[in-house]
Write a structure and sequence with these properties.
By secondary structure, the chain is α+β, with helices and mostly antiparallel strands. It folds into four domains: 152 residues, Methyltransferase, Cobalt-precorrin-4 Transmethylase, Domain 2; 62 residues, no CATH class; 172 residues, Heat Shock Protein 90 (2-Layer Sandwich), CATH 3.30.565.60; 88 residues, Winged helix-like DNA-binding domain superfamily/Winged helix DNA-binding domain (Arc Repressor Mutant, subunit A). The chain is built from 18 helices and 24 strands. The strands form eight sheets. It has a six-stranded mixed beta sheet with strand order 14-13-17-18-20-19. A four-stranded mixed beta sheet has the order 1-2-6-5. A hairpin with a 2-residue loop joins strand 5 and strand 6. Helix 9 runs antiparallel to helix 10. The chain is globular. About 7% of the residues have low confidence.
Length: 548
């Protein structure tokens, strides 16, 4: 039976954080039972993790192609995993699935967060071994001690709301079309199986329902993603948008976005992109390049709204509120950030990594759909995209009791001249002064005041062209992020991939993937010069393009 994830993305760290992956070249029962226990305890509410048997690792990264596991050993290993599950107290049973990766057989052991924490595992495989609670620390499984043990004990009766059973919905309320659309989008092998499985078996396999056969109930995350009308089973899980046409407070449009939360998120972003976001182009006759910017950069908006959908509480029944004003966009969600993040930290730090997550299952689904990345990349991406666009800094607010979270994205206003709005193309044009050059062959008898201007390719035009060449089949979100990365690589040459990941707010795996594509087409290259450390530089091919 297949898992509801794309195994290629999983192994390359594209779907979840590296800390939630453990690679094993071969079968090692002692290490594996400790890791199963640690993932089951899920101290940080990340959603458990995966053990990949048959793939060697180096510094937490997989070494590919994989070593593989002899197919003849699969039944034996699965029996041993079952035996290890009985060693945990209370008993805990992970989900095991064989796969073929690059022509080699591997075994994926999925360990979702357990409902009966804390779990204890034997320290060794001896008959008299002591049992201890194990937790994840970075990419290692260690015995919980001190404050970590106290935190784990406090989680004993606390299951995140998105992973709890919903007392109203039934498995029959899941929409098979939504489930299959998700499996198709994430390229899961479970899609094919979903056409033959019963709704109960499919729900169990996706871990969106729990309980005995006679009382199998959906979990809240499953309701939010795979029911057509989640508001029938949860209180007000929608997004409310108010578009203020001016500052009077009287002229506004109000819209409610309902349905599965992934559809809500996409619909709100599409509405704002089509109706609110506007590009400004300022033409200056003294410069070859026009100045281009947006009133609101889309990357910042996407990250801020995705953050609200990911981290709000769906237990308290307060919708996400989006207020659009001429000079700012406000995104309000409830409650505030999870401790230890507070108002002071929000004001002082531009990169915030939460110690634990409020919605571990929602986060997993959003990451699989490429709607968020986690890993603390959201804030840096917002700050960076606002800075590149020339916008004022974003603001993040909460109160001393962390009862709300407010994101404010100030608009960049065209101070040179009031823009002429072109609502059809979302472009506003402004011309500074008079054009000083005529195009060759211009009619000398043309009406006075008619300007035949020389057409220049702007820096932004060239970047857009390069990105379109490099990412032919890429989504608009991918192209936006790739353009952000390439622009930074042009401005700040000589850095390495981890530096660009931090500066852009993108994950390291995403940055490395984009760089590989740019290298393949000869736009960037890695060089050890001028330092021994080395870094990425643009090639002569790209430099000549930028000179146009």
């Amino acid at each position: 039976m297949s898992l509801p994830v794309n195994v290629e993305d999983l192994i390359h760290g594209k779907a979840i954080e590296w800390e939630r992956l453990e690679f094993k070249k071969g079968w090692n029962p002692e290490d594996i039972v400790h890791t199963v226990c640690a993932f089951a305890n899920d101290l940080n509410n990340w959603g458990g993790g995966y053990i990949i048997v048959g793939v060697e690792e180096e510094n937490g990264q997989p070494i590919l192609p994989p070593e593989g596991v002899p197919q003849s050993q699969f039944d034996k290993i699965q029996g041993k995993v079952l035996s290890l599950a009985h060693q945990l107290l209370p008993n805990y049973f992970p989900i095991i699935q064989p796969y073929i990766l690059q022509g080699k057989h591997i075994l994926v052991i999925w360990c979702p967060a357990g409902d009966n924490r804390p779990y204890l595992a034997p320290s060794t495989q001896g008959t008299k071994a002591e049992r201890h609670p194990y937790i994840r620390y970075g990419s290692r499984s260690i015995i919980a001690k001190g404050d970590n043990l106290k935190r784990l004990q406090e989680l004993a009766a606390r299951i995140p709301f998105d992973d709890r059973l919903n007392g109203i919905a039934t498995v029959g309320d899941f929409d098979l079309g939504l489930i299959q659309a998700y499996l198709h989008e994430v390229k899961s092998d479970l899609l094919e199986d979903s056409r033959k499985l019963s709704s109960e078996d499919l729900s169990r396999q996706m871990y969106i329902a729990k309980g005995p056969d006679e009382n199998l109930r959906p979990v809240n995350a499953g309701v939010l993603f795979f029911c057509k009308n989640p508001d029938q089973f949860l209180s007000r899980p929608w997004i409310e948008l108010v578009w203020h046409k001016n500052f009077s407070g009287k002229d506004f449009t109000e819209k409610y976005f309902k349905g599965p939360i992934q559809d809500q998120l996409r619909a709100v972003l599409a509405f704002i992109q089509n109706n609110i976001i506007q590009e400004h182009v300022i033409k200056n006759p003294e410069k070859a390049e026009a100045t281009r910017f947006y009133n609101f950069p889309f990357v910042a908006l996407e990250e801020a709204l995705s953050n609200a959908v990911y981290h709000k509480s769906y237990e308290i029944g307060s919708p996400i509120e989006v207020q659009i004003w001429p000079d700012k966009i406000e995104i309000l969600s409830y409650p505030g950030p999870v401790p230890p993040v507070n108002a002071q930290i929000l004001q002082q730090q531009k990169r915030i990594v939460a110690r634990e997550y409020r919605n571990r299952r929602i986060g997993d689904f959003l990451k699989e759909l490429k709607l968020t990345e986690g890993r603390g990349t959201g804030f840096p991406a917002i700050y960076r995209s606002m800075d590149i666009n020339g916008s004022p800094e974003p603001k993040f607010e909460t109160d001393k009791d962390c009862t709300y979270f407010l994101t404010v994205l100030p608009a960049r206003i065209n101070n040179e001249q009031e823009p002429l709005a072109n609502k059809g193309s979302n472009v506003a044009l402004s011309t500074i002064g008079k054009a000083q050059s005529k195009s060759e062959g211009a009619d000398e008898g043309a009406d006075e005041g008619a300007n035949n201007e020389t057409i220049f390719y702007t820096h932004d035009d060239i970047l857009g062209h390069i990105i379109n060449l490099t990412f032919v089949d890429g989504t608009s979100n991918m192209k936006t992020n790739a353009k952000l990365l390439l622009n930074l690589m042009i401005q700040e040459q000589g850095k390495r991939a981890p530096d660009y990941a931090i500066d852009t707010g993108l994950s390291l795996s995403t940055v490395e993937r984009y760089i590989r594509k740019l290298k393949r087409l000869g736009f960037v290259n890695f060089s050890q010069q001028p330092t021994n450390v080395g870094g990425y530089f643009i090639t002569d091919k790209l430099a000549k393009q930028l000179e146009k």
